[in-house]
Amino acid sequence: MSIKKVMVIGAGQMGSGIAQVCAQSGFDVILNDKNENALERGMHSIEKLLARNVQKGRMTETEREETLARLTPSTKLTDAASVDVVIEAIVENMDVKAKVFQALDEITADHVILASNTSSLPITEIAAITKKPEKVVGMHFMNPVPVMKLVEIIRGLQTSDETYQAIEEMSQVLNKTSVEVNDFPGFVSNRILMPMINEAIYTVYEGVATPEDIDTVMKLGMNHPMGPLTLADFIGLDTCLSIMEVLYEGFGDSKYRPCPLLRKYVKAGWLGKKSGRGFYVYE
Ligand code: NAI
């Protein structure tokens, strides 16, 4: 199938980045958010990043204008009736996503692919909400989307080969490297990353070393660009906890139990960079 027009649902951190990269790559994009202010913020952040690209010589003024001309803001989900692919990037909550996929199932024609950028919810379960599970797939971008090269393409139990191939081709056009992943808790990225972060938090909890020293070990000793605790603060400690819960529940294995210190910080509202305090303090 040839994909020309895309709707991205959710104009937050991830959705605005996905919409930007799609528009830059030549797709017509509808950026949808139910919240008008969020939609404005998302469009504004895209405009800012595109202007910076021109300043830095990564893009011409004409390319910037053409990219913006391909982007249409929308608050109506029914606009999905005109697209070939929908990429959902709304809050990480199954009940909320379920309502959106139920509505999309009614709005979109049978051939339209419904992708989710979920970082941890089961694609198979999202697909089962619809009447076309073969058209549902995970398209897991990394943050920040314009910078990070990877897309994990997650095959739900019923995702068809045709759907997988269409999304693989689309990822190439977006200049991303994709990997094929079967639908299991945490996919590949978070199944490996989150237990490492959780273990780093246990290392603080047990008084083995300070957060600064733990991050130094992983940066200078393992050549990681960022220490695990700095990364956890950047991702958001609430998000880290919810992904650990998904792994723990999904596998039923005690090796995935979230560290009590992680729970305590989240209960205190210490959510990392976004709340001003996590393992580090942010001004
Ligand atoms: P965010 O909170 O920045 O943005 C979510 C947006 O969705 C908000 O603007 C909100 O108004 C909108 N929204 C909520 N319900 C909606 C609905 N029913 N219809 C239309 N819009 C709706 O969240 P973020 O960080 O962009 O995450 C979005 C998704 O991407 C989540 O599933 C998350 O797990 C996943 N993800 C997040 C990553 C990250 O580093 N933040 C990385 C990879 C995936």
UniProtKB/TrEMBL annotation:
<dbReference type="Pfam" id="PF00725">
    <property type="entry name" value="3HCDH"/>
</dbReference>
<feature type="binding site">
    <location>
        <begin position="10"/>
        <end position="15"/>
    </location>
    <ligand>
        <name>NAD(+)</name>
    </ligand>
</feature>
<comment type="similarity">
    <text>Belongs to the 3-hydroxyacyl-CoA dehydrogenase family.</text>
</comment>
<protein>
    <submittedName>
        <fullName>3-hydroxybutyryl-CoA dehydrogenase</fullName>
        <ecNumber>1.1.1.157</ecNumber>
    </submittedName>
</protein>
<feature type="binding site">
    <location>
        <position position="274"/>
    </location>
    <ligand>
        <name>NAD(+)</name>
    </ligand>
</feature>
<feature type="binding site">
    <location>
        <position position="33"/>
    </location>
    <ligand>
        <name>NAD(+)</name>
    </ligand>
</feature>
<dbReference type="InterPro" id="IPR022694">
    <property type="entry name" value="3-OHacyl-CoA_DH"/>
</dbReference>
<dbReference type="InterPro" id="IPR006108">
    <property type="entry name" value="3HC_DH_C"/>
</dbReference>
<dbReference type="InterPro" id="IPR008927">
    <property type="entry name" value="6-PGluconate_DH-like_C_sf"/>
</dbReference>
<feature type="binding site">
    <location>
        <position position="92"/>
    </location>
    <ligand>
        <name>NAD(+)</name>
    </ligand>
</feature>
<keyword id="KW-0560">Oxidoreductase</keyword>
<dbReference type="InterPro" id="IPR006176">
    <property type="entry name" value="3-OHacyl-CoA_DH_NAD-bd"/>
</dbReference>
<dbReference type="InterPro" id="IPR006180">
    <property type="entry name" value="3-OHacyl-CoA_DH_CS"/>
</dbReference>
<feature type="binding site">
    <location>
        <position position="119"/>
    </location>
    <ligand>
        <name>NAD(+)</name>
    </ligand>
</feature>
<dbReference type="Pfam" id="PF02737">
    <property type="entry name" value="3HCDH_N"/>
</dbReference>
<keyword id="KW-0520">NAD</keyword>
<feature type="binding site">
    <location>
        <position position="143"/>
    </location>
    <ligand>
        <name>NAD(+)</name>
    </ligand>
</feature>
<feature type="domain" description="3-hydroxyacyl-CoA dehydrogenase C-terminal">
    <location>
        <begin position="186"/>
        <end position="282"/>
    </location>
</feature>
<comment type="pathway">
    <text>Lipid metabolism; butanoate metabolism.</text>
</comment>
<feature type="binding site">
    <location>
        <position position="97"/>
    </location>
    <ligand>
        <name>NAD(+)</name>
    </ligand>
</feature>
<dbReference type="GO" id="GO:0070403">
    <property type="term" value="F:NAD+ binding"/>
</dbReference>
<feature type="site" description="Important for catalytic activity">
    <location>
        <position position="140"/>
    </location>
</feature>
<feature type="domain" description="3-hydroxyacyl-CoA dehydrogenase NAD binding">
    <location>
        <begin position="5"/>
        <end position="183"/>
    </location>
</feature>
<dbReference type="InterPro" id="IPR013328">
    <property type="entry name" value="6PGD_dom2"/>
</dbReference>
<dbReference type="GO" id="GO:0008691">
    <property type="term" value="F:3-hydroxybutyryl-CoA dehydrogenase activity"/>
</dbReference>
<dbReference type="GO" id="GO:0019605">
    <property type="term" value="P:butyrate metabolic process"/>
</dbReference>
<dbReference type="InterPro" id="IPR036291">
    <property type="entry name" value="NAD(P)-bd_dom_sf"/>
</dbReference>
